[in-house]
Design goal:
Length: 418
C-alpha cells in the first residue's frame, strides 16, 4: 500500500512538473510582453505621454490603440490650451506650430467621423479652454451619407488587452518588427529611432520615425529616405494607385455624391452653434487632392455636383472664412508635395497659408502668420513633403520626384514670426 502511494505521488509530481513546464512559457510571456509594451509607451496614459512630449520633444503614435486619435488630441489641447487650434480628419495633420507665432495644437485625426465628432471635440474642449481661432479642414463626405462615428471614440484604449499582448509577436513573425528593436525596447536600450534620433513613444516612432510631434503635427516617416516602413506597408500609395482604386470603388473619403445629406446639414448647424456660442473665429477649407485623383473624381458627375454644392453652402455662410483648395493645382502644387493621393504634405499647407493671406489680407489668420516667411518656406522646400532639411526624402511615391536638399539652410529652431 505504501509503495503504491509513493508511486501515485511520483506520477502526480511528474504530471505537475509536465503541466508547469507546459505553462511556464505563458507565465514568462505575459510579463515580458507587458515590459515591452510599457517601455515602448503603448500602455501609458495620454497625460503621461503628453507631458513627456512637451518636456523632451518626443514623438508619439500608437500602433496598437483602437480607433483614431480623438482622446489623445483632446488631452493635448486641454493641457496646452492653445490660442490656435486645427481640427479635422487625417487630411488636417500637416499644420504645424512653426507656421504660427502663437500657441498652436493640431487636432487633426480627432474628427474622422465628421460633424458629430467635431462638435463633441469642441464642446468638451471649450468646457476647459476656448481657443481664439479654429482652422477646420472639411472632407467631402462630411455632407454625404458616410458615417463611421461610433468607431472613433473608444474608451480606455491605452489599457492593456489581449490584442496588445499578441500583436507584437505577429509583427516579429512577419518580419515587420526587427528582433533587435524588440529586444532593445524590452531591455530599455532603445528609446529613439535610428533615422531622426527623436525620442519615441509607441512602436511606430521607434521603428519608422512615424508619429505626432508635441504640437499634434504628424511627422510622416515614410517620406524619409532609409526609413523603416515595414509597419506602414498598407499606407504606401505608389503612383496614387490605392487612392485611385478607392475612388473607383467609392469607399472611405469618396463615399459621397449628389445631394447633401439632411442629417449631416443638421449636424453642421449644431457645430456652428457651438462656434458662435463660444465666440471662436472660424477659418474653414476643403483640403486638396493630388491632381490625378482630383481629375478622376471630376469625371464622376455625382461627385462633381456634390463638391459644388458643398462649396456653395460654405461660401454662403456669414461670419466664417471658407477656401476651396480641393483642386490642388490652383495652389501651384506639385504631386511630389503629396504624401499620398489624398493627404498633402507640409509644403502644400504653406501654400494654403500663402493663398489665404494673399487673397484675403483681412483674414483672421493674418495676425498669426508672416507671409514673407511662409513664402520663404515654400521656396526652400518646394517639391518636398516635409519642410525640414535635416532629413533627405526619398521618391516614396515612385513619381520620379527630385527630392533635393536646399543648400545652406537649416530649419532647426526656425520659428515663423510676424
Amino acid at each position: 500500500m505504501g509503495m503504491a502511494s509513493k508511486r501515485r505521488d511520483s506520477e502526480y509530481m511528474y504530471y505537475l512538473i509536465a503541466f508547469g513546464a507546459t505553462l511556464s512559457p505563458l507565465f514568462l510571456f505575459v510579463p515580458l510582453q507587458c515590459l515591452f509594451l510599457y517601455n515602448a509607451g503603448e500602455i501609458r496614459s495620454y497625460e503621461s505621454i503628453i507631458n513627456e512630449q512637451l518636456k523632451k520633444d518626443s514623438v508619439y503614435i500608437s500602433a496598437l490603440n483602437e480607433g483614431t486619435h480623438y482622446n489623445y488630441k483632446l488631452a493635448l489641447a486641454k493641457i496646452v490650451r492653445p490660442e490656435l487650434l486645427a481640427l479635422g480628419s487625417s487630411r488636417t495633420l500637416q499644420w504645424r506650430e512653426e507656421a504660427f507665432n502663437s500657441t498652436f495644437v493640431n487636432a487633426g485625426g480627432a474628427a474622422m467621423g465628421g460633424w458629430r465628432e467635431a462638435e463633441d471635440f469642441l464642446t468638451e474642449l471649450v468646457a476647459v479652454h476656448k481657443p481664439t481661432l479654429l482652422i477646420l479642414g472639411i472632407d467631402f463626405q462630411w455632407f454625404g451619407q458616410f458615417d463611421n462615428y461610433s468607431a472613433h471614440k473608444p474608451k480606455n484604449e491605452t489599457l492593456l488587452n489581449s490584442f496588445k499582448l499578441v500583436e507584437p509577436l505577429r509583427w516579429l513573425l512577419k518580419g515587420k518588427l526587427p528582433l533587435s528593436t524588440y529586444l532593445g525596447v524590452l531591455t530599455g536600450r532603445i528609446d529613439e529611432n535610428p533615422i531622426t534620433h527623436w525620442k519615441g513613444i509607441g512602436v511606430q516612432p521607434l521603428v519608422g520615425s512615424n508619429g505626432f510631434r508635441k504640437d499634434g503635427y504628424f511627422f510622416n516617416g515614410k517620406a524619409i529616405k532609409g526609413s523603416d516602413t515595414r509597419l506602414l506597408d498598407d499606407t504606401q500609395d505608389i503612383r496614387f494607385e490605392k487612392s485611385l482604386d478607392r475612388l473607383q470603388r467609392e469607399n472611405r473619403l469618396f463615399a459621397f455624391g449628389g445631394e447633401l445629406d439632411h442629417e449631416k446639414l443638421r449636424r453642421f448647424q449644431r457645430f456652428l452653434t457651438v462656434i458662435r456660442t463660444s465666440g471662436i473665429k472660424l477659418v474653414t477649407y476643403l483640403p486638396p487632392l493630388a491632381s490625378p485623383v482630383f481629375a478622376k473624381m471630376m469625371r464622376f458627375s455625382s461627385k462633381k455636383e456634390h463638391l459644388e454644392k458643398v462649396s456653395a453652402l460654405l461660401r454662403s455662410i456669414e461670419g466664417i472664412e471658407f477656401y476651396d483648395f480641393s483642386r490642388g493645382s490652383t495652389l501651384g502644387t506639385s504631386d511630389c508635395e503629396f504624401l499620398d493621393g489624398t493627404h498633402p504634405g507640409d509644403v502644400v499647407y504653406y501654400r494654403m497659408l500663402e493663398s489665404i493671406l494673399s487673397r484675403n489680407p483681412a483674414s483672421s489668420l493674418r495676425p498669426y502668420v508672416s507671409l514673407s516667411l511662409v513664402r520663404e518656406q515654400i521656396q526652400r522646400f518646394e517639391e518636398r513633403t516635409i519642410a525640414d532639411d535635416n532629413f533627405e526624402e526619398g521618391d516614396f511615391l515612385e513619381l520620379g520626384c527630385a527630392k533635393e536638399l536646399p543648400r545652406g539652410y537649416s530649419s532647426v529652431g526656425l520659428k515663423i514670426k510676424p
